[in-house]
Structure formats: structure tokens, C-alpha cells
Amino acid sequence: MSDALELGWEEWLALPALGLPAIKAKVDTGAKTSALHAEVIESFGDTGSPKVRFLIRPDPDHPKLELVCTAPVVDRRDVTSSNGQTELRYVIATEMQIGTVRRTIEITLTNRETMSYRMLLGRSAFGDHTTVIPDRSFIQPKLSFDLYQSIKPLKPKTRPLRMALLTREPDNYSSMRLAETGRERGHIVDVINTSRCYMKIEARAPEIHYDGKTLPFYDAVIPRIGASMTNYGMAVLRQFEAMGAWCLNPPSSIGASRDKLLAHQLLSQAGIAMPVTAFAHSPKDTKDLVGLAGTGPVVLKLLESTQGRGVVLAESKKAAESLVDAFRGLDANFLVQEFVKEAAGADVRCLVIGGRVVAAMKRQAQEGEFRSNLHRGGEAMAISLTPDERKIAVAAAKRLGLNFAGVDILQSKNGPVVLEVNSSPGLEGIEKATGKNVTGKVIRFIEQKVRTLGKRREINA
């Protein structure tokens, strides 16, 4: 700003090119770059000239006042907030007006829904001739949110969400049901083989390529990533997030659920009950390791096991020690876990979506088998949960950061304990056992979380 300007610690300003005639901003000399509240950020346009579209509610006291703004992207960069959290943000350049002074400034886009001010004005917007007086406010002329009354919203119009279903098994029950249900509700669902994705990692316009083509923007991604693809699948999912997609389960949460040791540590830190567990990597003191999990019987699990594979029951302490020695020879990471005998080969699978248990079934192992997995021949039946079971299932999914999870619970003599948390639970068994349309609940949850920009008034920069 070439003109001399005095600012208080809070000021009114306008962003005319975004169609925002009045924004109340906090002036922060400690922040270099300005930040603007933005929700449902959607990137689009050519690789050489990317743009971003976002929803904003400029008045914190009137959340029904919503506008959609569009602006060119000038950069993407990591920004560390005052609480120490780092976030990758889009950066736009747009014209700002305070009083009679106008200038083009850079603004990062972030969700400031919990903040009192929809905009933070950083020092790069001040200019050399600006003085900030921290004990005064509104030195420049005041504006009003009444200026938005002249902006008449367009009639609501709908558009389908575009969803990506990441799976290497498009023909299994869960994948087919999710794709069919999404399409039945009017959405576009593209089934994508995770292993065939490859990525262009670039600050302004990250891309995912698939079979020689660039994938479009997706509103939401439903990850059905198999255990063998966990690491690469998380990388692909992070790339979708970088492109602005909302992921049903975040990549870090999927990683935590797949790492049995980390999952147990996180659950333990949250005070969530589970069978006593010991962990080792080829220990020399076999007897002490087995003793940590009890006198026997105990269960030994490979850390990467799924569907009951790599899970062995040792009936006695001596048998457990022999199995530990065998695992040590394989140079494997494994858990030794207390065997909950009173569960009698049964567990409870709770399906948690968005912090609510939407369906539950009891799985009973075949006679002579302690693993109740349906893939192992277990039988399933609908069950009514106790309040304690419901509470512990929700707490476990929340601790791992999973919006969609299958939480397996055992009934011990001391109450319910969490056995495992699955980030890609199978849907066939629980839908058939309970008669509930679980896939419909998944799609409706996505609809609630991903707000459709096509229903908003759009203002083009």
C-alpha cells in the first residue's frame, strides 16, 4: 500500500473480485500471510492455470448466508498456525480494499469456522506505510453484512457428487454395493484400481494418473485398500487429499488401524479396554514375553494379519513358547495376547459410521475353532448391543480417527474389550445378518460431509 494507512487490531475490508463486499478481519502482525475462511474447497481448470472454487459464510452469526467464490491459484504451501499445526493450503491473489486503499494481496484458504473472524490480515498485506495500533479497533470506515442483502441467491440446483471407490476387488460384495448404492442416489462413482494409479506431485496442481489419463477432481474418496497395498494406498489417498477430495477414512487413520501395535497403543492411551497384549520382534527372553500376556492360553498374531490369517492359539504356556520361537525364526513382528476364554469363540462386530453404531452382529466360530471370522466359516446373527458395547465401539473408532470402521469386541468377565478395529470392514455379512442397508448409510454420511457446491450461488472472479 503506497498510501499511509492506520489500522486497529480489527478492521472491516472488502474483497471485490471475490464478490465479498464486507469482511470483518483480525489484524495480526505476527502472521506473514493473510488467511480467509473457506469450506468445500474444489480445484479445477487447466494444469497451467489452475483455479479453486470454495464456499464461504462471511458472517459468523448468520451461517445461512453462503456464497461460492472462484479465484486463480497462485501457489500451494505449508502454513503453520498459531497452535503449531501445519496445513497444506491453496494460495490465491485477489484485490483487497480498506477505506480508500486498494491493493492485490495473497490469501491462503483454510477453514476458520471456529474462529470469531472469517479473515486474518497478515503483515504482507500491510505495506511499508501502514501503522498498526493494537489498542484500537475499526480505525477505517466500518462496513456491514447488510451489504449482502443485495446479492440474491440463485434457485437451488443439484449436481451429483463425484466419488472415487479405491479397490483392487471391484467385483466383491462390498465394492459392488457401495458403487451401486452411490449411483442409485444419483452420484457418479468411479471404481479405481489403487495399484494402477500413479502421481504427479506438484505444488500448484497435483495430479493422479490412471491408465494414461489424468483423473478428474473428486468430491469424495471411499478407500477399500487391501492389506498388501496399505503403504502405496495411503500415498494415493494423500494425493487425492492434496487435490481437494474428502476421504471417508484419512490415510493416517488407515495406517494406524493396520498397524496392530500402534492401534493397541492408541487405544491404551485412550483408556479403552482390550485383552492384555505384549509385543516383540524376535525376543530372546521367550518365557518372559509369554508371561506378560498371562499364564495361558494366549493368542499370537502377526502384526499384518487380516481375516484371521497369521493368528494362532497356544493352549499352554509351553506351546506358546514354542510358537514364539518359531516366529522368531521368521524374523517377524508379532503380538502375544491374552485369550478371553469366556467369549467362547464369539465376538461382536460393530459397524461405526460418523461416530454412531449403525449395525451390529454376533459372530460365532465353528466348533473347534477360536477364530470367529466369517471367512473362517463363522456364523453371524443380529444382536442388540449393551450401552457399554456401543460406547466402547464408538470410542475405539474415534481414537483411530476413522469415520467408517468395523470394531470387534469380546465379552470378557470384566466387560467388553476391543479386539481389533478394521478400516475396510466387509459389508456382506453384516447386511445379511441384520437386514440393514449399511451401504446406504455410508453414502448418506458422505453426502452430509461433502457439501455440494452446485447448490450455492457462484461468483466468478
Describe what you observe in this structure.
- Its cofactor is Mg(2+); Mn(2+).
- It comes from Henriciella pelagia.
- Mg(2+) 1 binds at residues 408, 420.
- Mn(2+) 1 binds at residues 408, 420.
- InterPro entries: Asp_endopeptidase, ATP-grasp, ATP-grasp_RimK-type, ATP_grasp_subdomain_1, Peptidase_aspartic_dom_sf, RimK, Rimk_N, Rp_bS6_RimK/Lys_biosynth_LsyX.
- The longest helix is centred in the middle third of the chain and has 13 residues, at 230-242.
- Residues 154-158 and 454-461 have low confidence and may be disordered.
- The protein has 461 residues and is α+β, with helices and mostly antiparallel strands.
- It contains 9 helices and 28 strands.
- The protein has 4 domains: 5-154, Acid Proteases (Cathepsin D, subunit A, domain 1); 162-254, Rossmann fold; 276-339, ATP-grasp fold, A domain (Dna Ligase, domain 1); 345-446, D-amino Acid Aminotransferase, Chain A, domain 1.
- Helices cover 21% and strands 36% of the residues.
- The two termini are 22 Å apart.
- Helix 5 packs across helix 6.
- Strands 2, 3, 4, 5, 6, 7, 8, 9, 10 and 28 form a 10-stranded mixed sheet that branches. A 5-stranded antiparallel sheet has the order 25-24-23-26-27, with helices on both faces. A 4-stranded parallel sheet has the order 13-12-17-18, sandwiched between helices.
